[in-house]
Amino acid sequence: MKIFNTLSGKKEEFSPQGNEVKMYVCGVTPYSDAHLGHAMSYIIFDVIRRYLQFSKYKVRYVQNFTDIDDKIINRANQRGISTRELADEFIDSFQEDMKALNIMPPDITPRATAEIPKMIEVIQGLIDRGFAYPARGSVYFRVRKAPDYGKLSHRSLDSMTAGAMETGEEKEDPLDFVLWKASKPGEPQWESPWGPGRPGWHIECSAMSLKYLGDTIDIHGGGQDLIFPHHENEIAQSESFTGLKPFAKYWLHNGLVQLGGEKMSKSLGNLITIKEALQKYNADALRVFVLSSHYRSPLTYSEEVLEAANGGVERLLRVVSRDDTTGGKGETLDAEPYRKQFIEAMDDDFNTPQALAALFDLVRKINEAGDSGIRIDQAQSTLLSLALEVLGLKLPKIQIISGAGGIISGESVGTHTIIQSPIDDRVKRLIEERNRLRQAKQWQQADSIRAELEKQGIILEDTTKGTIAILKRK
To answer: What does pTM read for this prediction?
Structure first.
């Protein structure tokens, strides 16, 4: 397995340090509902985690909540509630979204405000080692004291300007960044050796990673917008505190969701929340939408692309719900070549677009084999295993009802049951009328009937054995 390491700027053979892969992914700042940019990141790292487990690795996955921050303080003040109340509200909302997207819960979800003692320990250790200094109740990290600062973002100190870093008249150097912020009137604060205050953003993730995963981890993940300064600063302070390198062996960064050519973000106000997206599309469609693009590439949101993803999910649903009409007799379709292609794609830096392509090639082959009387149940099981176990799709049950020349079955296919049901006379008449129109090559009128039925949750599929009407079950 090879993965692209932002630190080296190239693909590297994946070789974890021990039997358990230690994985830390930066979590959200809970001050409003999560959006599709968050969905992209956490779907990607969910699939990476699932594939590592599929590949027989044990994974210890930590994802934090940054529950104290300027944005949280400002939003709480606007609403007249405490920062804790605001954070609780949107942590609950975020977890609901993750559950709806079928994202596995992290093993540990530390909240920054519950980890202040560890942060103070790390900050004091950096002061003792000469890497940090107190100033007017705050504490700053000496950037120039870290000889390889900039190695993750591939920037030189000379190219960094004071405007790109946090400002403060009390700093020794404009590049120095804050570890502990002196308290301001009306803000939440904690006691520290340097006076009341609160932690800086960067120290939070270092402290939580060090506490729950140890001095060195295997994978550190997040969006590309976190490379600098957040992750750069994490490396500097963590390695300076422990004296060990590397802090993280592999740095993985996902691309960003774009809407109208710009990054989707709360600050720009051009976001679509996960809840809004789930009102129009199911979780499987959103996952296929995300996984159809390589995780390091930008993902452009459009209704057309999501409709295509939704169509892909319907193809998967139909093929796993097909009845193996051979009754176990005759030739069996071999799905192993497609499973191998899927694994080869995932082993190549988690290339989900190629992995999906292998699955849809298998979908086509299953349909062809099924139409020819070849046994397909084992291939269906392989397809389900990869789609559910690795890609995290749910593929909810659907019900097939007969149309002209359709198929009725009460048997099970994997975890999905095809339930026998009589067809509604009105639907049957519409299907028959559509078939007549298609034979007369009146395609526009035939398509209008298909569209009318689809609004009612009935999907038509034309096969060599006739038209099959599929009733989607909620």
So the answer is: 0.85
